[in-house]
């Protein structure tokens, strides 16, 4: 069983391949096409599908929470630019509002469970209401929540909206999340720790580059990434609540 990663940015896509080769995230294939071009048949045979995959934060978060690589799941962090304070803020009128394309694949493939993430500003544009209505219309129960990076003791806030959708007819087997002694899920030693302030974290990515284009690409990839430790907490809470 292999994972499917969909990511249009070439730099991030290569980063994913490097992480797969290093065994840091679930083994799988990287598809650099736009999600608009992806068909349901393209996903046949994959037990995990990660859309808008970035640099693999969702796969790492699943591992931190104790979710096995061979357990079926979909994840996605739809582009935030239509809703972000730093973006266009034109909401669903923005061409980068790609939830309808992801929902198209969800409706056709019916994954058992999926996790998603978005900036909190999307709530003001009705994004969460639309997502919930779409998913509930095809038989999913949806649970959202706002968590910040500081929830896992990071120095920066970085609020994000998280949600899980579970097919109502399905009963998930209970699994215990993997927790280290006296540690929260995701409190792991890393070369580039998310515990530092966000500007400092980005600066540490910049110094790894070997030229301006690489520096910019690395910084943008990091800026767009989820904080895996926060996602791991959300996933672990779902696992604990699921019979």
Describe this structure in words.
With 243 residues, the protein is of the alpha/beta class. The protein has one domain (2-193, 227-241): Rossmann fold (3-Layer(aba) Sandwich), CATH 3.40.50.150. It has 7 helices and 7 strands; from the N terminus they run E-H-E-E-H-E-H-E-H-E-E-H-H-H. It has helices spanning 10-21, 57-64, 99-109, 127-137, 198-206, 212-224, 228-241, and strands at 2-6, 28-31, 46-51, 73-76, 113-118, 140-147, 160-167. Strands 2-1-3-4-5-7-6 form a 7-stranded mixed β-sheet, with helices on both faces. Strand 1 (2-6), helix 1 (10-21) and strand 2 (28-31) form a beta-alpha-beta unit. The radius of gyration is 17 Å and the shape is globular. Residues 170-196 and 204-214 have low confidence and may be disordered.
Topology (elements, then pairings):
Blueprint: E1 2-6, H1 10-21, E2 28-31, E3 46-51, H2 57-64, E4 73-76, H3 99-109, E5 113-118, H4 127-137, E6 140-147, E7 160-167, H5 198-206, H6 212-224, H7 228-241
Parallel strand pairs: 1-2, 1-3, 3-4, 4-5
Antiparallel strand pairs: 5-7, 6-7
């Amino acid at each position: 069983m292999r994972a499917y990663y969909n990511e249009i940015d070439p730099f991030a896509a290569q980063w994913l391949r490097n992480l797969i080769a290093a065994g840091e995230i679930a083994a799988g294939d990287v598809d650099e096409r736009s999600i608009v071009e992806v068909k349901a048949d393209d996903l046949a045979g994959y037990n995990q599908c990660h859309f808008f995959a970035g640099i693999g934060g969702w796969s790492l978060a699943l591992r931190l929470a104790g979710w096995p690589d061979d357990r079926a799941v979909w994840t996605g962090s739809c582009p935030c630019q239509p809703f972000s304070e730093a973006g266009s803020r034109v909401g669903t009128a923005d061409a980068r509002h790609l939830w309808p394309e992801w929902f198209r694949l969800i409706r056709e493939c019916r994954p058992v469970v999926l996790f998603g993430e978005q900036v909190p500003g999307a709530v003001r544009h009705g994004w969460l209401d639309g997502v919930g209505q779409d998913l509930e219309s095809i038989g999913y129960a949806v649970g959202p929540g706002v968590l910040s990076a500081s929830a896992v003791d990071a120095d920066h806030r970085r609020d994000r909206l998280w949600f899980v959708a579970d097919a109502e007819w399905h009963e998930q087997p209970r699994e215990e999340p993997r927790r280290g002694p006296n540690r929260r899920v995701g409190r792991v030693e890393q070369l580039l720790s998310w515990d530092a302030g966000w500007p400092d974290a980005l600066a540490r990515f910049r110094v790894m580059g070997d030229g301006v284009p690489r520096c910019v690409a690395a910084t943008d990839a990091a800026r767009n990434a989820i904080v895996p430790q926060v996602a791991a907490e959300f996933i672990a809470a779902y696992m604990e609540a699921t019979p």
